[in-house]
Write a structure and sequence with these properties.
two-stranded antiparallel sheet, Rossmann fold, alpha/beta, globular
Length: 264
């Protein structure tokens, strides 16, 4: 594969990315670049942050020049509907009109679903650092996103919200006990949207760093853990997963998406 133009959409606010950088954690855009470069170094990347970039109109004008778009994760919650979030939803609507291949990951999937008329709400339970036993649906097992993927798998994940209403004609490709919609597929016109609630592009090591970075909020605000001992125990479980996980298998969805662009 060579000479394919990919637009990466950064979902986090600049302030959050600065917080990441100050403690040595990769931004989600940096994680995406590293993971895609695992499969090929022949992609041309542009990056846009629709919440803060002032040149959105010029980016919109050249959206049809991109072979694919990847929209990554964020610490935002779609239902808060701030001006920054509204900018992202509106930009996604433009992307769904002009970019033929979209891979929407976690927050990206939630924005894609909202822009297309679906609904996202706060989850009763959360995937913190890892999503266990993600299981393909019949549709999922036959979809190219899961080519060469085992039918039931664990994955890096970090989400407090979930898709509760699919866009028209969307299909669920996988679920787990935490989220009924762990992946999906739908089209808007000629645009194909592959959506993942989990994070194949992020390492478990980064997930552990995020948990440690957000530890106080996870205990006091999110009430995800009662104390630091519970956080340590949860991190230990993720470390066990690191010892048995396979890097290429973890990221096979990224490879399949790139292959889909190449074949189309």
């Amino acid at each position: 594969m060579s000479n394919y133009n990919i637009l990466i959409v950064e979902g986090n606010l600049k302030e959050e990315n600065q917080n990441f950088s100050e403690v040595g954690i990769q931004t989600h855009t940096e994680s995406l670049r590293d993971s895609l470069n695992h499969f090929t170094n022949d992609l041309n990347f542009d990056v846009v942050n629709p919440s803060s970039d002032m040149n959105l109109n010029s980016v919109k004008e050249k959206l049809s020049n991109y072979d694919g778009l990847i929209w990554g994760g964020s610490s935002l919650n779609i239902y808060n509907n701030t001006p920054e979030i509204q900018r992202q939803i509106e930009f996604m609507r433009e992307c769904q009109k002009k970019v033929k291949n979209i891979l929407a990951i976690c927050w990206g999937m939630q924005v894609a679903v909202t822009a297309a008329g679906g609904e996202v709400k706060k989850s009763v339970n959360s995937n913190i650092g890892i999503a266990n036993e993600i299981t393909m649906s019949v549709d999922g097992s036959n979809h190219p996103i899961y080519k060469n993927k085992i039918d039931k798998f664990n994955s890096p994940a970090f989400n407090f919200d979930e898709v509760v209403t699919l866009p028209i004609n969307a299909i669920c490709l996988a679920s787990n006990k935490i989220n009924k919609i762990q992946s999906l597929f739908f089209q808007v016109g000629n645009t194909k949207i592959w959506g993942l609630q989990y994070h194949p592009e992020i390492t478990y090591e980064k997930m552990i760093s995020l948990i440690e970075f957000r530890k106080e909020k996870l205990i006091k605000n999110r009430k995800a853990f009662e104390n630091e001992e519970q956080v340590k125990n949860h991190i230990s479980l993720i470390k066990e997963e690191i010892s048995v996980s396979n890097k290429t298998q973890r990221m096979v969805e990224l490879k399949n998406w790139l292959d889909n662009i190449k074949n189309n």
